[in-house]
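Submission sheet (multi-component)
Chains listed below:
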Amino acid sequence: DGGITQSPKYLFRKEGQNVTLSCEQNLNHDAMYWYRQDPGQGLRLIYYSQIVNDFQKGDIAEGYSVSREKKESFPLTVTSAQKNPTAFYLCASTLLGGYSNQPQHFGDGTRLSIL
Amino acid sequence: GQQLNQSPQSMFIQEGEDVSMNCTSSSIFNTWLWYKQDPGEGPVLLIALYKAGELTSNGRLTAQFGITRKDSFLNISASIPSDVGIYFCAGGRFTGTASKLTFGTGTRLQVTL
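Outcome: structure written.
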C-alpha cells in the first residue's frame, strides 16, 4: 500500500542523547515536512524539504537537524540541544507542481518522551 | 510562527446534532484544508478548498473557503459517535515549486449518545 511510514511509534530519550526519527514515503512525493505537536496545540513546522539534498528551517528548527539524501526518506534528529523534546512528531509529504495544489498527507506519528 | 484562530476550542454535542466550526487568519491563503485527528494518530484530510467562495461537501461534511480568503468554516451534519476527534484547519500558500501550511489550534469534538 502507498503511504507514509513513521518509526518508531514510541521513543524514549536520555539526557544528552541524540535520537533519530524515521519517515519514509512511497508516494513519489516531492516535498516532505516535519511537525511538532504539543498537547492541546496545533502543528508547528520544524523543517521541510522540497527537493533531494535541500531543506529549509521551519518555525521551530532550533535543536533539530534533518537530511534528505533520497526522495523517499526524510529523517529527523532531535539533538541534545533541544531542551524540551517531549512531543508528538508528525511527518508529512506532498506533490509539487502540476495544475492544482496538492494537500499534505501525514504519517501516524512518533511520540517522544524523556527518560 | 503564526497559528490560525480556530473556534470553538472544544464542544460537546449530542448524537444527531449539527456542528459548526471556523478558522480565521490575518493573512490571505490560496488554499484551505480541513483535517481530523484521532488520538495517537496523524491527521487525515477531510476536505480541500482551492477557490475563494468555494463550497465543497464530503458526505456529511461541508466546508467553505471565505470570500476574503482569510477564513473558512466546516459543518458536520447529523453527528455520530465516530465524529469524535480533533479537527484542524490549515491555510496553504502553494506555488508550483513550494507548499507550506499554517495550522489552526484545533477544535476538540465530543459526541454523547
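Remark: Chain B touches chain A at residues 1, 3-4, 6, 30-31, 33, 35, 40-45, 48, 50, 88, 90, 92, 94, 96-101, 103-106 (CB under 8 Å).
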